[in-house]
Every structure is written in structure tokens, then in C-alpha cells.
Amino acid sequence: MKERLIFHVDVNSAYLSWEAVHQLKNGASTDIRTIPSIIGGDTSLRKGVVLAKSLPAKRFRIHTGEPVTDALTKCPTLQSFQPNFPLYHKYSKAFITILKKYAPVVEQVSIDEAYLDMSGLHYFYSTPLEAAEKIQTDIRETLDFTVNIGISSNKLLAKMASDFEKPDKVHTLFPDEIPVKMWPLPVRDLLFLGKSSEQKLIDAGIKTIGDLAHENKSKIQQLLGDKAGQQLYQYSRGLDDSPVKSQPDEAKGFSVETTFNDDIVSLEKIFPILLEQCDVLATRMRRKKKKCTCISVTFRTLDFRNKSHQMKLANATDITDEIYTDARNLFRESWKGQPLRLIGVSLTGL
Question: Which of 9, 15, 196, 324 could form a disulfide with 39 if both were Cys (CB 3.0 to 4.6 A apart)?
Fold first, then answer.
């Protein structure tokens, strides 16, 4: 069996980068990536949440997901721009097109990130780093934005590696590097670990990913529950055998999910995410000349339990606003305020 080589490629501050490139191509004199700026709505109306931020904005401790009003308080000179989803789809498509030049299997997991199965391609590159740098250069020179690339033997470690120092970096996290690069990190940095689980672990004296990896598995399951404890224990040891797969064949419908590193606890943060998801799915349907007659929303709570709620439509639709209105209503009806780690929408009955 050939040794696996997996890349995780993540666009640096995608929405803001794509807006910056668009503005520069249309004659703008300032690159908004170089000033305190966000994607998140109209500052004159003081509405919306931060969807993306520049590095200068990050220095003001502005966080993705916080209300624009809070961001303005931290930085009164902050420039804010409304989301432009059709533009994002255009750049996302171009981004994925480049990735498909380098790997036979590309799994797009969101609008701005993808996994590449580079296994067996060592004949074409002297090292994995050389391959990653070629991809970075191609994207930078062709599309004018930057990406981070994480390299490992599985998807979990590749994703962890791509989240190391940003922007425009390449990082490796192979199994033999786990003790040095991953285990010293605070336990909160482990993929999919929520704040509630973090606090339980810290209270039990488990402060780093290494502490978690060296603890008794049954103790972790007692603290976090059987399923969540088992999964996070495996992750702390760098174990993940999930395959990289191209988008599955269209069958029963279209769906999209977004996973968060921080807890989502307010409708003000949830609704912009739902709108983006509905727009992505509606665009896919129109491209395939389909309409849906059933809408479902899904969310995952901190105990790793998924809950969903669906409704049948009187008339088939492919219109973003109609789908978003129904998805928003479904969410209001089914969510009881629990902190969330995942939100998803699916459209069926095509």
C-alpha cells in the first residue's frame, strides 16, 4: 500500500482577499489587505458581523464572527465592505481549477479550502515542499491572492498544519513531528474541540494536546462522552483514516456544512453563515438546472450530536432569498440556544 501524502490548502482571509483583488483590478489605489478592514456589512448602518479581516485589523483584536459594532469600537478607522458572494464563487472556482492541475483527487470542503491527495506524485517533485511552493506560486501569480498549505499523511494533520503561522506559509505535520509540533499546543488548538470540552479537560488537569494523548482513553470518554471522547482522543494522537474524495455524485440533493473552531451562540452570527450556504446551494442547483421541494437545516452541539429540522415546499424553487427565508425560519424553530460547532443546509426533492 502506497504511503499517503495529503495537502490541505486554505485561502488566507478569503473574502477580504478576493474583495481586495477585485478592487485593485478595477482601479483602486489602496490594497485593503494592508489597512484595518473587514468584510461584514455597512459601517454607516452599524449592522452585520465580521466575516473576514485583514492582518492590520487582527492587530486590533478584531475576531471573525463578532458584531461590526464591536469591531468599530476597537478600531474607529476600520473600513468595512459588504459581502459579494457571486464574486467569491468566481474566485473559488478559479482556485479549485488550479488545484486540480496538481492532484488527481481534490476534495473541496468549503468555498476557500480543499484537500489534495498527492500520494504517489513524488515522481514529479523532489519534495512535498517543492510541490506546495509551486501551488502557492501558481495561485499567487495567476489569481493575486495567497494560501496556506499544510502537509501530512492524513487530513487531520494536514488541516492542523495549515492552521499554523499565516499568511502565505507551508507547514508540515507528519506523525514523527507530532511530539514537537502538536503535543505542546494548548488543548483548545485541537481540531473540533469546543470551549465546553476544553474547560472539562483543563479542570481535569489536561492542558495540552500531549496531555490528552497520554491520558487514559476511558477517562477522556468519561469526561466528554463515549463518541466525542473517542474521536478527540484519536485526534490528539494524530490518527485519522478518512479518505480524500472528489465531490460525490449528485444523487438525492445538495448540501453544505460549516464547522467552527469557536462556539456559535447567537442568531446574529448564524444568519450570515446560513445566507452564504443557501446562496452556494442555490447556485449549484441553477447550474444543474434543478429546483428543490424540501429544505433541511442541521446543527451540531458541543456533545457532537447532530440535530436537523426540515420542511416541504408548496412550490419547487432555486431562488436564494426563498431558500434562505425558509432555512432561517427552520433554524429559529429548532435551535434552543445551545452553543454550536457546525451548521448545515441541505436541499432535496429535486
Answer: 15
Q: Where are the beta strands (DSSP E) in the chain?
A: 6-11, 37-39, 52-53, 79-81, 105-110, 113-117, 147-152, 170-172, 253-264, 292-301, 306-317, 340-348
- Cell 478569503 belongs to 14
Q: How many CB atoms lie within 10 A of CB 304?
A: 20
The DSSP code sequence of 257-300 is EEEEEEEE--HHHHHHHHHHHHHHHHHHHHHTT--EEEEEEEEE
- The C-alpha atoms of residue 16 and residue 76 are separated, in whole angstroms, by 19
Catalytic residue among 113, 133, 177, 276: 113
- pLDDT exceeding 70 applies to what percent of the chain? 95
Length of the chain: 350
Beta-sheet strand order (sheet of 79-81): 52-53, 37-39, 79-81
Report residue 314 as a C-alpha cell.
Answer: 408548496
Which residues are CB-contacts of 147 (< 8 A; sequence separation ≥ 6)? Answer: 9, 10, 11, 12, 95, 135, 136, 139, 168
Q: Which three cell numbers stand for residue 344?
A: 448545515
- Catalytic (active site) residue 19: no
pLDDT tens digits, residue range 82-140?
888 889 999 999 999 999 999 999 999 888 999 999 998 877 888 999 999 999 999 99
C-alpha cell of 295? 429544505
The three-state secondary structure class of 67 is strand
**Please, which residues bridge with residue 300 across strands?**
306, 342
Query: Whose grid coordinates read 507528519?
Result: 174
Q: How far apart are CA 192 and CA 260, in angstroms?
A: 7
Instruction: Judge residue 314's burial from the number of C-beta atoms within 10 Å of its C-beta, 0-12 exposed, 13-18 middle, 19 or more buried.
Output: exposed
Query: In this predicted model, what pLDDT tens digit does every residue of 229-277 receive, in sequence order?
Result: 999 999 999 999 999 988 654 557 888 888 876 778 888 888 888 998 9
Q: Minimal CA–CA distance to 323: which of 306, 68, 263, 290? A: 290
